[in-house]
Amino acid sequence: MSPGARSKELLSPDALEAELRRIGAERYHIHHPFHHLLHQGKLNRDQVRAWALNRYCYQAAIPLKDASIVARMDDPALRREWRERIIDHDGDQDDEGGIRRWLALTDDLGLDRPYVVSRAGALPATRFAVEAYIHFVRERTLLEAVASSLTELFSPQVISERVSGMLTGYDFISEDTLRYFNKRLTQAPRDSEFALDYVRRHALRPDQQAAVLDALRFKCDVLWAQLDALHFAYVEPGLVPPGAYDPNEDVK
Amino acid sequence: MSPGARSKELLSPDALEAELRRIGAERYHIHHPFHHLLHQGKLNRDQVRAWALNRYCYQAAIPLKDASIVARMDDPALRREWRERIIDHDGDQDDEGGIRRWLALTDDLGLDRPYVVSRAGALPATRFAVEAYIHFVRERTLLEAVASSLTELFSPQVISERVSGMLTGYDFISEDTLRYFNKRLTQAPRDSEFALDYVRRHALRPDQQAAVLDALRFKCDVLWAQLDALHFAYVEPGLVPPGAYDPNEDVK
Q1: Which of A30, A116, B79, B111 has the most CB atoms less than 10 A away?
Q2: What ipTM was predicted for this assembly?
Q3: Domains and their CATH numbers in chain B
């Protein structure tokens, strides 16, 4: 269902990469007003809590998404490469990995961990976007599933803006709180280089290249829609949907 | 992933129905500010176009959702009953059925039909919510899938408010434009009575009843999230996500 311009011409790998980077430059959520507010220190603690609580849903889904991709790879070498992503997020034991580091962030923000993990307070739009991502990687071609990870090409910038901005802007955030992001600064480039190389080598027909570009647009939409929903519920107009985390009602 | 209070006690069918109606009274999208604006005639033509364009995605998915439910019913009598929903939406020929009547509405609003059908201008959040609904009926139990249709218990009220409000409030809307809704005023009660009876007879354990209540909450979220996204993009703050229908740019 993901729309987008259909390229009729075969692009060179470099031209395809340039087009992917152009999509990121236009659509990556670094341009979203909620991101600007977050990294400029302009949100209050409740708004940062809402962000961390919702973003947990996305973080928690990453290994499911990556396991679905591994489950579709015939080549052991490919699987070995991609399984690193699962290990990065789940760690080797209970107090390790990206999800655990995200929970350290929500802990430090004073959110009750079982409440975060239950996703009971997450915005429905967050859950729908995250589920759309999981279903996308299961239902589309492996090439599209791999391509949908390419937002990582752009994440070092968003992460470094976010970390420096949040450390400066919020007295309730410490460097230790943000250790999730420090790891991602090295993991994301390694992962995205691999995925980009895969896409460059496997998108060899115009329809495949169009599908790859649409996959990246789709993934940008997944990230953007999450910030839309946060902005709507907690910034402007500030209408919290029924059942979602409400700073004015909820002592969680 | 749908959260909600877990009932530990077995409810009588009447108590279960009362609980379902309570959820609707609290969470049905009739209470959403965008619905109020729509039926009070307070939207401009572009905003009504955005609503009709996005809501098309939902309308178009209904027969897919219902076919997935029929595909899971072992009983021919049940399948005969439920297939009526598919017939209602698809008609017997090209110029009939609920989807066709919805396109008559978008036609009358001056939207280009191929553009509407392509869903290219729909909000990503609309697509994600609609896909969440399709996946829900495929992946959950048949009982939950049937229960998720129970928002139709509340739709006659929303439809009659919408029709009278839109006819009064908008000079670009005629009774003929809204003929989709007139049909639904008879179809929805017939469908929802059947589904309600099914749920009353098949939700016989506390866990099943809790799942049924969660299914209705989920479906209310699906409808609510669509109005959140419309409100955010086209009313307040009015930030159209990249690629979505933009009245200021798009002459469609």
Answers
A1: A116
A2: 0.82
A3: 13-234 (1.20.910.10)
